[in-house]
Give the backbone structure.
Amino acid sequence: MIRFKKMLMGITFLLLGSFFHFSASAQSLVFNTQDFPPFSYKIKDRVCGPAVQIIEKVCEKIGVGCVFRLLPWRRAQQEVKEGTAHAMFVIGWNKARDEWLYFSPPIMQTEYGVFVNNSNPLEFRDIFDIKGYTVGVYGPSNTSRSLEKIKAKVGNITIDLQPDDESGFRKLDISRINAVFSNKDVGYAMIKKMKLNNLRYAGTYKSLNYYIGFSKQFNDKNQVTLFNAAFMELYRNGTIKKILSEHRMQIAVIE
């Protein structure tokens, strides 16, 4: 668990009553994301979603502009690694990412779980409930890596890796696979988008938090800390909760 509250309380006062700017080279912060509804998506030419609204509020508070780019995920990450973008969102935490990214506080809570066809009576409570299944998943991704860990424990699971979220749900709808392992919010968004009436959520595997990740190589740590402190001010005054509630999403508990 990444603990931000104690770390940030000592510097939050720097934001109060002052007008803070990042360095001249970062007067506008560039945030990369992918097409990942309901968290990030495009309406016409505008990148939208709850994480975008949260980042806009933080940037407004610290007095910097923010630019959002929705790209194929591999390219989005590569640009952050190369320094042509400052940060990427929304992402889960893992050790590999922690080596090269500074993380924001958790900006929302979500969960991974299992979707099945309505004809399947499964109530998913244990990973062995999907033994023998062919399970679709988007990847490579944190989601697919979680499913690989499940397979390592269960053994008899066939992973049907897909390059996008839609493909697995489309195959499940016509019973070409037994289940889809997915972020719950993403799954419901896919079902709504594709107007699939034959699928349901069978149960939760685990809850997790989503973050913003800033390149360690191309961002000053103190500046990222101030960004995070501004986020915490908005967290404490209820702004973050209000934004997420409007999207029917869950606020993360920050200890």
